[in-house]
Structures are given as C-alpha cells and as structure tokens.
Amino acid sequence: MRTFIRSFIVVLAVAASAATMRAAGPYSLVQPIVIGGEGGWDYVAVDSAAHRLYVSHATKVVVIDTATNAVIGEVPDTPGVHGIAVAPELGRGFISCGRENKVAIFDLKSLATIEKVATGDNPDAILYEPSRKEVYAFNGRGQSATVIDAASGKVTATVALPGKPEFAVEDQAAGRIYNNIEDKSVVVAIDVATHAVVATWPIAPGEEASGLAIDTAHHRLFIGCSNKLMEMMDSASGKVLGSVPIGPGVDANAFDPATGYAFASSSDGTLTVSKVSEDGALAVVQTLETPRRSRTMTVDPATHRLYTPMADFSPVPEGSPAVTRPPMVPGTFRVMVYGM
C-alpha cells in the first residue's frame, strides 16, 4: 500500500509539473547567439530554406547559420540599416539603408554588395514580391514606396502613400501588399500589378501601428498597435475582427502558418503569443518574458523558432534630459532564440 501511495504521489507530481509547463505556454528560451560589437538594430529576417538569419546591426547586416546558431559573415556598409529581404531564385538580397536613402543589393553566396539604388527619404521596411520579382522599399519620411526590379536594380515605380509607412506583408494570391501607415492609424492595400493604393482601412480601436503579419490561408492581418493592442483584421474587407492586449512599444509581428500562432514583440520585455480559436476569436496563449528593449523579432516557419535581438544597457546618467536613451553596453549585442 505504501508503495502504491508513493507511486500515486509521484504521478500526481509529474502531472502537476506538466500542467504548470502547459500553463506557462509553448515557448521557452533555447539559447542566446552572441554577436558583440556596438550600435543599435532594427529588423531581423529569416531564409528558412537556406538556414540563414539576417540581423540588422548599426552599419552592417550580420548573417547567422540557423542550423548551428553561428555567425558566418556580414554585409558591411549599410548605414542606418532597417530591413532585409531576399530573392533566393535570383541569388540576391536587399537591405534598406535609411541614412543613405538607398537600397543595397548583395550576393547571397559571397555577401558582397552588387550595387546601391536610390530610394525616397529614409527607406525602412523592405519586401520582395516574387510573382513580379520586384522589391518594395517603404520610405518613412518620404511617405512613399520605391519599387525596384530585383534582377536589374532599376526603379520601376514610386507608390505615393498617405503617411509614414511601417512594416509590410504580401498576399500573393490576392495580388496585394499591405502596409501600416503609422501616423494615420490606417492600413493600405497596394495592387502589385498597378503599383497603386486600392484600399485604405482604419485600424480603430488600434493606434499608430508598427508591426504587421499575415495569415494568407484565412485572410487575416495581425497588427501591432502602440496603444498596447494586437488587432486581427480581415485582409479582404478591412474589418477589424478582434484584438488582444500586448505590451507597450511593439515593433514587430509574425505569424507561423503551421502552428497558427501570431506573435507581437514589445520593448517592455514581453513577447505575446496568440492564436485564433475554432469560433474565430483571437486569444493570448502565452506572454513570454524577454529582455527589455528586444522589440523586433521573426519566426522561422520551418523550425517554429523565434529570434529577437537585444543588448544590455547602462542606467541613464543623473541629470540627463528625460528623453535620453540609456547607453548600450558595448559587446553585449546578441540574438535570443526561443523554441517550442
């Protein structure tokens, strides 16, 4: 009987432990990838097929092998780098260099820069559209998108936008690119054939959206808003379908088609994992604790791993103006890897 009781207690303990793990959520820290150096960062981009992660870092892009989590090279001379996009079938990558008002085109194998193409003022988010083999550089201060032929590097169009653009995603089947207009709190839809804005949708109750992700199978946009909401919008009609609470300072969203998880990373040290239920409601599955200021991220749909850059910061010196940013500790820049 005592043996039976002890066994029963062990079973209960294991069950309780498993329940606690489930309650904590599907994601946990795998490891940090140390990069070092100085300077800030913005977006990260993953190429699942090539097992590569591209990380913006000050005036360069760091390239990581996602199979080994090792740094394997870098693309230098990208002042004010924001975003990275790749065209695997062309062997080319594209980097928005915000301080130069240019897009750098580089070779995916050698990582050598092929050429730089002039854009509008302060290119930020960048997207490769494979059906027409064009690159869209979204110009923050220029309130426009510069469209570049990916093979020739020639500018083919300039799309006027109603305000300051942030992140963009594409639905290839619909022939549309969706882009957040941050200062107007709207989402625009761009027709890839005509290079024209064909719809403008308010995101209320959301405000000042930055991050954007898409579930093309179910025609849903996931929008990261500055008023601590991640909204879900119908990408065909522009109707807001629901929202969940997230942390302040969101700057990136992602969606994993295989798991159905939608993600929002915020600078307060939280990464919100959400999912749409069978009845169509968006609900929080996990609030993952991350380092403060790790506000951008991406997901690898092949491995379901999350990658978010971060660094350590020193306290703001006493007597500094209220808007002063804490100084980054040199050598602490790294990418945090989270897995299921």
Jot down its keywords:
340 residues, mainly beta, Methylamine Dehydrogenase, Chain H, 2 domains, four-stranded antiparallel sheet, 7% helix, 51% strand, disordered N terminus
Range of helix content: under 10%
Secondary structure tally: strands: 28
Q: End-to-end distance, in Å? A: 39 Å
What's the CATH class of the largest domain, please? Mainly Beta
Shape: globular
The whole-angstrom Rg is 21 Å
**Roughly what is the average pLDDT, rounded to an integer?**
92
Oligomer: single chain
CATH fold-level label of the largest domain: Methylamine Dehydrogenase, Chain H
Named at the architecture level, the CATH assignment of the largest domain is 7 Propeller
Number of domains: 2
Give the helix tally: 1
Q: What composes the largest sheet?
A: 4 strands, antiparallel
Query: What string, H for helix and E for strand, traces the elements in order?
Result: HEEEEEEEEEEEEEEEEEEEEEEEEEEEE
Outline the low-pLDDT stretches. Answer: 1-23
Strand coverage percent:
over 45%
- Secondary-structure-based class equals mainly beta
Let me know the CATH homologous superfamily of the largest domain.
YVTN repeat-like/Quinoprotein amine dehydrogenase
Q: Widest sheet: strand order?
A: 1-28-27-26
